[in-house]
Inverse folding.
């Protein structure tokens, strides 16, 4: 399987980083990058486990949706707001990296954190807008 966290084997000391291929078994818990060490610890290799090294894991795919984009003129005010959203996403991205340096920026969890930070930044900015 693909490692989601950094770690090292408690028996042979081999280490891995996020994204490396590792041997993993939940019960009894056995993790190692070396197949022989993994099996010596009681890990078993099943056919489906071995196949995970040769092909990408299959995941559920939602049906595709055809999006219809209206052919209209976009006012400058909307373009300005869209640019502000892009700026907030950039700030949220760098903030997420500084807060969670161990996360891979291509990981789904990182994306969720970045999205939440962007929402929070936009909310704070909205609270500070002049009321009038």
């Amino acid at each position: 399987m693909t490692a989601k966290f950094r770690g090292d084997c408690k028996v042979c000391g081999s280490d891995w980083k996020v994204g490396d291929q590792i041997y993993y078994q939940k019960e009894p818990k056995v993790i190692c990058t070396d197949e022989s060490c993994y099996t010596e610890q009681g890990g078993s290799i099943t056919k489906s486990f071995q196949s995970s090294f040769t092909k990408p894991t299959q995941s559920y795919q939602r049906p595709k949706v055809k999006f219809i984009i209206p052919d209209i003129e976009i006012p400058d005010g909307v373009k300005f707001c869209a640019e502000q959203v892009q700026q907030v996403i950039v700030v949220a991205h760098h903030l997420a990296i500084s807060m969670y340096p161990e996360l891979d920026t291509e990981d789904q969890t990182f994306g969720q954190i970045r999205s939440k930070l962007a929402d929070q930044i936009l909310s704070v900015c909205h609270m500070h807008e002049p009321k009038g």
Observations:
- Residues 7-54 form one domain.
